[in-house]
Amino acid sequence: MSKYNFSGNNIIGSVGDNSISINHLNESNSSIDYEMMKKELSELYHHLLQKQSKNKEEVKLQRDIQHLIEIKDKATLLKTIGEKASKLFFDTSISVGAGVLANYIFNFLNH
Known about the structure:
Number of helices: 5
Order of helices and strands: EEEHHHHH
Low-confidence stretches: 4-12, 22-26
Largest sheet: 3 strands, antiparallel
Radius of gyration: 14 Å
Mean pLDDT: 81
Oligomer: single chain
């Protein structure tokens, strides 16, 4: 997690090791880096795969992410991520430093 946090003007930022900043502003889906999001989904999946003890929600999230990785179309991927958005999905994305994914989930959950 970050060493320092700051906020203002609808932006929450952080500074330090493994920091990510969440942008509260609406982004158009066309500006989202599809390849980076796919990479982050893969990292998130492998993080959950390596976790020794998972609760039911984490097992379901792992299955959901596996399904998301298989989606080839950007619009379908973004729509499905929105349908699967949850606090656990967001928190897990933050914990592995998946900023593009975390930002999208955050914006979806808060709009």
